[in-house]
Amino acid sequence: MIHRPYTAILIVPTGIGAAIGGYAGDALPVAKAMAKVCDRLITHPNVLNGAQLYWPLDNVFYVEGYGLDRFAQGDWGLKPVHQNRVGLILDQGIEPELRTRHIQAADATRATLGLTLTDYVVTDNPLQVELRTAHSGASWGTIGHPDSLLRAAEQLMTKSKAEAIAVVARFPDEIETLALDNYRHGQGVDPLAGAEAVISHLIVRQFAVPCAHAPALEPLAVDDTISPRAAAEELGYTFLPCVLVGLSRAPQFVTQPQPHSIWADEVDALVIPQTACGGSAILSLSQRHTRIIAVRDNTTTLNVTPEDLGMEAITVNSYLEALGVLLAHKAGISADALRPVVSPLSQACD
Question: What is the mean pLDDT of residues 97-123?
Fold first, then answer.
Protein backbone atom coordinates (compact mmCIF):
# COMPACT_ATOMS: atom_id res chain seq x y z
CA MET A 1 0.00 0.00 0.00
CA ILE A 2 1.30 3.46 -0.95
CA HIS A 3 0.86 6.27 1.57
CA ARG A 4 1.46 9.92 0.85
CA PRO A 5 4.16 11.58 2.98
CA TYR A 6 3.00 12.58 6.45
CA THR A 7 3.48 16.34 6.63
CA ALA A 8 3.44 18.52 9.75
CA ILE A 9 4.13 22.17 10.53
CA LEU A 10 5.83 23.34 13.71
CA ILE A 11 5.22 27.00 14.60
CA VAL A 12 6.66 28.93 17.53
CA PRO A 13 5.96 32.64 16.86
CA THR A 14 8.91 34.94 17.40
CA GLY A 15 9.21 37.75 19.91
CA ILE A 16 6.50 36.54 22.30
CA GLY A 17 8.63 35.01 25.04
CA ALA A 18 7.85 31.38 24.27
CA ALA A 19 9.19 29.13 27.03
CA ILE A 20 10.53 26.84 24.28
CA GLY A 21 11.52 28.58 21.05
CA GLY A 22 11.78 32.04 22.57
CA TYR A 23 15.57 31.85 22.77
CA ALA A 24 18.49 31.01 20.50
CA GLY A 25 17.55 27.82 18.73
CA ASP A 26 16.10 26.19 21.85
CA ALA A 27 13.20 24.74 19.83
CA LEU A 28 15.65 22.91 17.57
CA PRO A 29 15.54 19.73 19.73
CA VAL A 30 11.76 19.70 19.25
CA ALA A 31 12.20 19.99 15.49
CA LYS A 32 14.82 17.21 15.48
CA ALA A 33 12.49 14.86 17.34
CA MET A 34 9.49 15.79 15.22
CA ALA A 35 11.47 15.20 12.02
CA LYS A 36 11.91 11.57 13.11
CA VAL A 37 8.13 11.15 13.43
CA CYS A 38 7.09 12.99 10.25
CA ASP A 39 8.06 12.36 6.66
CA ARG A 40 8.14 16.12 6.03
CA LEU A 41 8.34 18.88 8.62
CA ILE A 42 7.79 22.52 7.69
CA THR A 43 8.98 25.15 10.15
CA HIS A 44 10.51 28.62 10.22
CA PRO A 45 13.82 30.31 11.11
CA ASN A 46 12.83 31.12 14.70
CA VAL A 47 12.68 27.38 15.40
CA LEU A 48 15.87 26.36 13.59
CA ASN A 49 18.23 29.34 14.03
CA GLY A 50 20.72 28.92 16.86
CA ALA A 51 23.32 31.65 16.17
CA GLN A 52 26.48 29.68 15.32
CA LEU A 53 24.71 26.37 16.06
CA TYR A 54 22.55 24.47 13.60
CA TRP A 55 21.70 20.89 12.64
CA PRO A 56 21.22 19.38 9.17
CA LEU A 57 17.76 17.82 8.81
CA ASP A 58 17.06 16.53 5.32
CA ASN A 59 13.27 16.34 5.68
CA VAL A 60 12.80 19.75 7.33
CA PHE A 61 11.80 22.79 5.27
CA TYR A 62 13.09 26.22 6.38
CA VAL A 63 10.31 28.69 5.51
CA GLU A 64 10.23 32.38 6.50
CA GLY A 65 7.14 33.50 8.43
CA TYR A 66 5.44 35.60 5.72
CA GLY A 67 6.05 32.82 3.20
CA LEU A 68 4.58 30.35 5.68
CA ASP A 69 1.45 32.52 5.91
CA ARG A 70 1.05 32.55 2.11
CA PHE A 71 1.65 28.80 1.99
CA ALA A 72 -1.02 28.16 4.64
CA GLN A 73 -3.47 30.34 2.70
CA GLY A 74 -2.91 28.15 -0.38
CA ASP A 75 -1.44 31.01 -2.41
CA TRP A 76 2.10 29.64 -2.58
CA GLY A 77 3.54 26.16 -2.75
CA LEU A 78 6.96 25.00 -1.58
CA LYS A 79 9.38 23.57 -4.13
CA PRO A 80 12.23 21.56 -2.55
CA VAL A 81 15.74 22.34 -3.81
CA HIS A 82 19.16 20.71 -3.63
CA GLN A 83 20.96 24.03 -3.24
CA ASN A 84 20.33 27.78 -3.31
CA ARG A 85 22.71 30.55 -4.28
CA VAL A 86 22.53 32.73 -1.18
CA GLY A 87 23.03 36.48 -1.49
CA LEU A 88 24.21 38.45 1.55
CA ILE A 89 23.07 41.98 2.42
CA LEU A 90 25.13 43.93 4.95
CA ASP A 91 23.75 47.07 6.56
CA GLN A 92 25.83 50.18 5.80
CA GLY A 93 25.46 50.99 9.49
CA ILE A 94 27.70 48.08 10.54
CA GLU A 95 31.13 49.27 11.69
CA PRO A 96 34.14 48.13 9.58
CA GLU A 97 35.53 45.60 12.08
CA LEU A 98 32.12 44.09 12.78
CA ARG A 99 31.41 43.93 9.03
CA THR A 100 34.68 42.04 8.53
CA ARG A 101 33.65 39.53 11.19
CA HIS A 102 30.44 38.80 9.27
CA ILE A 103 32.19 38.52 5.92
CA GLN A 104 34.63 36.06 7.51
CA ALA A 105 31.72 34.04 8.88
CA ALA A 106 30.19 33.89 5.41
CA ASP A 107 33.52 32.84 3.88
CA ALA A 108 33.85 30.16 6.56
CA THR A 109 30.53 28.59 5.55
CA ARG A 110 31.79 28.46 1.96
CA ALA A 111 35.12 26.88 2.85
CA THR A 112 33.99 24.61 5.67
CA LEU A 113 30.39 23.70 4.79
CA GLY A 114 30.55 24.07 1.01
CA LEU A 115 27.69 26.58 0.78
CA THR A 116 27.19 28.59 -2.40
CA LEU A 117 27.14 32.35 -1.77
CA THR A 118 27.12 35.23 -4.21
CA ASP A 119 29.14 38.41 -3.72
CA TYR A 120 27.73 40.50 -0.88
CA VAL A 121 26.02 43.89 -1.15
CA VAL A 122 26.21 46.78 1.32
CA THR A 123 23.02 48.86 1.54
CA ASP A 124 23.25 52.40 0.11
CA ASN A 125 21.92 53.82 3.41
CA PRO A 126 22.10 52.63 7.02
CA LEU A 127 18.94 50.61 7.72
CA GLN A 128 18.43 52.31 11.11
CA VAL A 129 16.71 49.52 13.03
CA GLU A 130 14.62 50.65 16.01
CA LEU A 131 13.23 48.27 18.64
CA ARG A 132 9.74 48.42 20.15
CA THR A 133 7.76 46.51 22.78
CA ALA A 134 3.98 45.96 22.62
CA HIS A 135 1.67 46.16 25.66
CA SER A 136 1.58 42.35 25.72
CA GLY A 137 5.34 42.28 26.16
CA ALA A 138 5.95 41.02 22.62
CA SER A 139 8.85 42.63 20.74
CA TRP A 140 8.66 44.34 17.35
CA GLY A 141 10.54 47.04 15.50
CA THR A 142 10.97 49.28 12.47
CA ILE A 143 13.65 50.11 9.91
CA GLY A 144 14.29 53.66 8.77
CA HIS A 145 15.25 52.86 5.16
CA PRO A 146 13.26 49.88 3.86
CA ASP A 147 13.80 51.15 0.30
CA SER A 148 17.55 50.69 0.71
CA LEU A 149 17.02 47.10 1.86
CA LEU A 150 14.83 46.33 -1.16
CA ARG A 151 17.30 47.87 -3.61
CA ALA A 152 20.07 45.70 -2.19
CA ALA A 153 17.94 42.56 -2.51
CA GLU A 154 16.98 43.42 -6.08
CA GLN A 155 20.63 43.94 -6.98
CA LEU A 156 21.55 40.52 -5.58
CA MET A 157 18.73 38.83 -7.48
CA THR A 158 19.23 40.54 -10.85
CA LYS A 159 23.02 40.93 -11.04
CA SER A 160 24.28 38.10 -8.83
CA LYS A 161 21.43 35.63 -9.52
CA ALA A 162 20.80 35.07 -5.82
CA GLU A 163 18.03 32.55 -5.08
CA ALA A 164 17.79 33.31 -1.34
CA ILE A 165 18.67 36.39 0.69
CA ALA A 166 20.45 36.66 4.06
CA VAL A 167 20.38 40.04 5.77
CA VAL A 168 22.66 41.33 8.51
CA ALA A 169 21.38 44.60 9.99
CA ARG A 170 23.04 46.66 12.69
CA PHE A 171 20.85 46.47 15.79
CA PRO A 172 21.04 48.94 18.68
CA ASP A 173 23.44 47.95 21.46
CA GLU A 174 21.51 50.17 23.90
CA ILE A 175 18.79 47.64 24.72
CA GLU A 176 16.78 48.24 27.89
CA THR A 177 18.97 46.73 30.62
CA LEU A 178 16.32 44.85 32.60
CA ALA A 179 14.72 43.31 29.50
CA LEU A 180 18.09 42.14 28.18
CA ASP A 181 19.15 40.78 31.56
CA ASN A 182 15.88 38.87 31.93
CA TYR A 183 16.26 37.38 28.45
CA ARG A 184 19.87 36.32 29.02
CA HIS A 185 18.75 34.56 32.20
CA GLY A 186 15.87 32.71 30.52
CA GLN A 187 12.99 34.78 31.88
CA GLY A 188 12.05 37.34 29.23
CA VAL A 189 11.21 38.12 25.62
CA ASP A 190 13.89 38.26 22.92
CA PRO A 191 14.10 42.05 22.37
CA LEU A 192 15.41 41.63 18.81
CA ALA A 193 13.10 38.99 17.37
CA GLY A 194 10.13 41.12 16.36
CA ALA A 195 12.29 43.57 14.39
CA GLU A 196 14.08 40.68 12.67
CA ALA A 197 10.73 39.38 11.44
CA VAL A 198 9.87 42.79 9.94
CA ILE A 199 13.08 42.73 7.86
CA SER A 200 12.61 39.25 6.42
CA HIS A 201 8.86 39.74 5.83
CA LEU A 202 9.59 42.81 3.71
CA ILE A 203 11.87 40.96 1.29
CA VAL A 204 9.72 37.82 1.03
CA ARG A 205 6.56 39.85 0.42
CA GLN A 206 8.27 41.93 -2.28
CA PHE A 207 10.28 39.26 -4.11
CA ALA A 208 8.83 35.86 -3.05
CA VAL A 209 12.28 34.42 -2.30
CA PRO A 210 13.53 32.72 0.87
CA CYS A 211 14.99 35.21 3.35
CA ALA A 212 16.23 35.26 6.93
CA HIS A 213 18.03 37.76 9.14
CA ALA A 214 20.93 37.85 11.58
CA PRO A 215 21.48 40.91 13.81
CA ALA A 216 24.89 42.58 14.07
CA LEU A 217 25.76 43.47 17.67
CA GLU A 218 28.85 44.07 19.72
CA PRO A 219 29.57 41.06 21.98
CA LEU A 220 28.19 41.37 25.49
CA ALA A 221 30.28 41.19 28.64
CA VAL A 222 30.86 37.67 29.93
CA ASP A 223 28.29 36.50 32.49
CA ASP A 224 28.72 33.05 34.02
CA THR A 225 25.07 32.87 35.12
CA ILE A 226 23.55 32.91 31.60
CA SER A 227 20.66 30.50 30.98
CA PRO A 228 21.52 27.53 28.75
CA ARG A 229 18.58 28.54 26.53
CA ALA A 230 20.22 31.91 25.77
CA ALA A 231 23.82 30.64 25.67
CA ALA A 232 24.03 30.15 21.88
CA GLU A 233 24.01 33.92 21.45
CA GLU A 234 27.08 34.27 23.70
CA LEU A 235 29.42 32.31 21.45
CA GLY A 236 30.97 34.96 19.21
CA TYR A 237 30.63 37.97 16.96
CA THR A 238 27.93 36.75 14.62
CA PHE A 239 24.64 34.84 14.42
CA LEU A 240 25.00 34.42 10.64
CA PRO A 241 26.09 30.75 10.15
CA CYS A 242 22.72 29.16 11.01
CA VAL A 243 20.94 31.60 8.66
CA LEU A 244 23.19 30.75 5.72
CA VAL A 245 22.84 27.02 6.40
CA GLY A 246 19.03 27.27 6.57
CA LEU A 247 18.73 29.36 3.41
CA SER A 248 21.08 27.09 1.46
CA ARG A 249 18.33 24.42 1.30
CA ALA A 250 15.22 26.53 1.87
CA PRO A 251 12.40 25.61 -0.53
CA GLN A 252 11.50 28.08 -3.27
CA PHE A 253 8.03 29.60 -3.41
CA VAL A 254 5.86 28.70 -6.43
CA THR A 255 2.40 29.86 -7.46
CA GLN A 256 1.53 26.88 -9.67
CA PRO A 257 1.82 23.14 -8.96
CA GLN A 258 5.18 21.72 -10.02
CA PRO A 259 6.72 18.26 -9.68
CA HIS A 260 7.34 17.50 -5.98
CA SER A 261 5.95 20.86 -4.79
CA ILE A 262 4.08 20.87 -1.47
CA TRP A 263 0.75 22.63 -0.88
CA ALA A 264 -1.32 23.48 2.18
CA ASP A 265 -3.93 20.81 1.54
CA GLU A 266 -1.19 18.19 2.12
CA VAL A 267 -0.51 19.33 5.69
CA ASP A 268 -1.67 16.66 8.14
CA ALA A 269 -0.85 18.34 11.45
CA LEU A 270 0.11 21.65 12.99
CA VAL A 271 1.87 21.97 16.37
CA ILE A 272 1.66 25.33 18.17
CA PRO A 273 1.94 26.85 21.66
CA GLN A 274 -1.50 26.76 23.30
CA THR A 275 -1.60 30.52 23.99
CA ALA A 276 -0.37 31.69 20.56
CA CYS A 277 -3.12 30.62 18.18
CA GLY A 278 -3.94 33.93 16.50
CA GLY A 279 -1.37 33.97 13.70
CA SER A 280 -2.36 34.06 10.04
CA ALA A 281 -0.96 30.63 9.15
CA ILE A 282 -2.66 29.02 12.15
CA LEU A 283 -6.04 30.56 11.33
CA SER A 284 -5.76 29.48 7.69
CA LEU A 285 -4.85 25.89 8.53
CA SER A 286 -7.68 25.70 11.08
CA GLN A 287 -10.06 25.97 8.11
CA ARG A 288 -8.54 22.87 6.48
CA HIS A 289 -8.43 19.19 7.41
CA THR A 290 -5.34 19.76 9.53
CA ARG A 291 -4.97 18.16 12.97
CA ILE A 292 -4.07 21.01 15.34
CA ILE A 293 -2.05 20.16 18.44
CA ALA A 294 -1.69 22.88 21.09
CA VAL A 295 1.13 22.55 23.63
CA ARG A 296 0.21 23.82 27.09
CA ASP A 297 3.63 24.10 28.75
CA ASN A 298 5.12 26.23 25.97
CA THR A 299 3.82 29.39 27.60
CA THR A 300 4.03 32.82 25.89
CA THR A 301 3.21 36.46 26.67
CA LEU A 302 0.02 36.07 24.61
CA ASN A 303 -3.28 34.56 25.69
CA VAL A 304 -5.00 33.46 22.48
CA THR A 305 -6.10 29.83 22.88
CA PRO A 306 -7.94 27.49 20.50
CA GLU A 307 -11.03 27.80 22.71
CA ASP A 308 -11.00 31.60 22.35
CA LEU A 309 -11.18 31.24 18.57
CA GLY A 310 -13.59 28.31 18.41
CA MET A 311 -10.78 26.26 16.91
CA GLU A 312 -10.87 22.46 17.14
CA ALA A 313 -7.58 21.29 18.64
CA ILE A 314 -6.02 18.56 20.74
CA THR A 315 -4.40 20.16 23.79
CA VAL A 316 -1.40 18.32 25.21
CA ASN A 317 0.85 19.12 28.14
CA SER A 318 4.22 18.92 26.41
CA TYR A 319 6.05 18.38 23.15
CA LEU A 320 6.76 14.84 24.31
CA GLU A 321 3.02 14.23 24.35
CA ALA A 322 2.62 16.03 21.00
CA LEU A 323 5.09 13.59 19.47
CA GLY A 324 2.88 10.71 20.59
CA VAL A 325 -0.21 12.31 19.04
CA LEU A 326 1.66 12.82 15.76
CA LEU A 327 2.86 9.22 15.72
CA ALA A 328 -0.63 7.87 16.35
CA HIS A 329 -2.10 10.12 13.68
CA LYS A 330 0.52 9.04 11.15
CA ALA A 331 -0.20 5.39 11.99
CA GLY A 332 -3.94 5.93 11.48
CA ILE A 333 -4.71 5.21 15.14
CA SER A 334 -7.28 7.21 17.06
CA ALA A 335 -5.72 8.88 20.09
CA ASP A 336 -8.79 7.74 22.07
CA ALA A 337 -7.76 4.12 21.56
CA LEU A 338 -4.57 4.77 23.54
CA ARG A 339 -6.45 5.90 26.65
CA PRO A 340 -7.59 3.47 29.39
CA VAL A 341 -11.28 4.28 28.86
CA VAL A 342 -12.94 4.36 25.42
CA SER A 343 -16.43 5.86 25.31
CA PRO A 344 -19.11 3.82 23.51
CA LEU A 345 -20.60 5.05 20.26
CA SER A 346 -23.78 7.10 20.53
CA GLN A 347 -26.52 7.60 17.98
CA ALA A 348 -26.23 10.70 15.84
CA CYS A 349 -29.05 13.24 16.11
CA ASP A 350 -31.02 14.43 13.10
Answer: 97
